[in-house]
Predict the structure.
Amino acid sequence: MISGPEHETAPLRPAVFFDGMSSRRRTVALAFGDQLEISEDERPLAAWDYADIRRADSPSGTLRLTCLTAPALARLEIRDAAVAAELTSRCTRLDENMPGRHGTTKIVGWSLAATVSIVAVVLFGVPLAADRLTPLVPQALEQRLGEVADGQVKVIFGNQVCSSTAGQQAFAKLVNVLRETAGLDTSVQSAVLSSPIANAFALPGGKVYLFSGLLAKAENSDEIAGILAHELGHLKHRDNMRGLIYNGGTSFLIGLLFGDITGSGALIFASRSLVTASYSREAEQNADSVAIDVMHRLGRSPKPMGQLMFRVTGKEGDRSLSILSNHPLTEDRLKRMTEEDRPLGGPPLLTAAEWASLKAICSVKN
Amino acid sequence: MNQMAVVPPALPGSVSFSGKRGDFRALVTRGALLELVTVGFYRFWLTTDIRRHLWSDTTVDDDAFEYTGRGKELLIGFLFALAIIVPVYLAYFLISVEAARFKAFASFPLLAFFYLFGQFAIYRARRYRLTRTVWRGVRFWMTGSGWAYAAYAALWGVLVGLTLGLMLPWREAALERYKMRHTHYGDLQGSFEGRGWDFFKRGWWLWLLAPVALYVFPLAPFVYAAFKAVEWRWWLSGMRFGGVRLESTLPRGALIGLYWKVIGWIVLLALAFVVYLAICAGLVASMSAAPLNQFFAPQVFLKSIPLLVLAGIGYLAFALAINVVIRIYLLRDLWVRVLASTNVHGMEAAANVSAKGELASALGEGIADGLDVAGF
């Protein structure tokens, strides 16, 4: 025996030792002295301070230990329950590295904080960023986006621009007077597309499209004028660009939550629809304000616009949930337009003949 | 193959799993609830705990594995990945705008870039997991280039697409050779000896059945489960570390039961969800002032906010329960079945391996998380 006097009183316990330098499996004997002494065939291999010993993951029935001052992967494995219990009682800081209940509380706390901050950013930060960033986006980029969208619109709707000469003249006259009143420059382009869909929309970069389906349902020029003024309102506020920034930002932030949980797609979709719908409703209301203002300045009433929309959609409140809708309910818009109804103070925007040729813009080919 | 079998292994390389199913069930149930409370942020720690459980109860030649990764590393990897993915998405957006100017919808080929990025992430995620895998005090590690692997995977992917999936076995063999050639256990270098042809021989009839299975519902789970079983067996049987050879005897039908159990549970849970919705509707209807026949008219019914909230809560519970079921059957039970079919030969080659290799960061795992890709 080369070992010190305390070993004569302390019995030797069997264990398995891996020194972290090689995969050699060593059957060792343990001695509990001032330190934990590990020896193989009476040759000392290592001595670990009890305070430096930590638990490592192991199958049940095995106590696996590591030591802060030893090589990071050195492992001592004890399968004898009595030895394990004796050693555990000596190592006071055994479980300090183990992720435990305290750690979980911390994770939950930080996650809640992160969630609150993400929700706050989605509700307040992103709209603010969209408003502030939109004016900074160069017109050139917006034009390019418009060209992309324009190409896609033409692929989807078959590129059928209606262009009877008289109809085109009437349409240009109407758009020009609205554009000037709304305070937009001549970069605005517009066209009537042949499609049964009753709709109109604005593209980024200043393009307004009116579908012939809406024209077919219109009864007078003020109805179409109001709709076009509404779309010009979107252009004026650059709502496409703002919407793009806003949707990109919220999609990204909401996507951070519920990362890989199966079935989370529906949740992400639902919460995103909810916030973006509210944002879009606001943009629609602002565009309506522009339309109302333009019609008033021209001495015309915005009420016909509301009536046209009501004719197209019918009463919406019965069918959909208002908080999920991306525009205000048509009946509410009609109510607002009706409240803004004023006695006519200006001449009609189109003569009866011009209105007739505009209605016929898609039916006459030249 | 046969001349190797003549030499009897010095040590019987038995592989076993000692983890209790109840422990795992408790782990993933608690994890699912915590994922709900933390709106998904707990996933980093849950993934880590699942791996710790599976690794540390898996023993080869009487010595258990250990997973030394931590949830915090995955979180940091995810945050770093975000810092990379966000500018990439912005650049992608600008480039696609430019591309689409010339031709509508011309930007779709750019998605190919994200495929490459995803493959890169898979490779780097594998590297992270391997460097956190320890056996007998020595860690596994990996070299090689994630981008080279991604290019390789993409080229083979094109070939598989052109041949309608027929080349899949050769693609897997080629990619596995690349991965295993760059995989090490200490100073033992890995290699992959599985050949595409062997995989094809065992599974060609599944390739023929696949188009039929797409239309005949009850056939699809059988075909998929059989394919996974053939794949696992071929994959494990091809793995080598120096002189250490793995062998799997997994029968073709071994996993079919697991997939059907998952389907059965999902049907049961869906039924429970429907019953729950009916009860909620009944409760809300009885509390509202409107007469019953009026309440159930679709326009009133779908507008009831309390009902929508209750349905949302029910849906959450439903989704979480499915997560638990999938993890128990397709992660834990599948792992146990595959392990039970596996034997290791030539263990003496692993008796004295010198430690080597550096730890890799969890960036790849983060990117894979951010792009929603998975694989090993």
